Amino acid sequence: MIKTNENKISIRYNRPALANYQLDALFNDARYAIVESSTKAGKTAACLVWIIEQALQGKSGQDFWWIAPVYGQARIAFRRLKAGLPRESYNPNESELTLTLINGARIVCKSAEKPDNLYGEDVYAAVFDEASRAREEAWHALRSTLTATRGKVRIIGNVKGRKNWAYKLARKAESGEPGMSYQKITAYDAIDAGILSEDEIEDARRQLPDNVFRELYLAEPSDDEGNPFGMIAIQDCIAPMSSSQPVCFGVDLAKSTDYTVIIGLDANKNVCVFERFQKSWNETIETVRRVCGKTKALVDSTGVGDAVLESLQKDSRSNFEGFKFTAPSKQQLMEGLAVAIQKQEIHFPDGVISNELEAFEYEYTRTGVRYSAPSGMHDDAVCALALAVSIASQPVYEWEEEETTSEQTYW
Ligand SMILES: Nc1ncnc2c1ncn2[C@@H]1O[C@H](COP(=O)(O)OP(=O)(O)OP(=O)(O)O)[C@@H](O)[C@H]1O
Ligand SMILES: [Mg+2]
Question: Per-residue pLDDT tens for 18-28?
Answer without folding.
Answer: 999 999 999 99
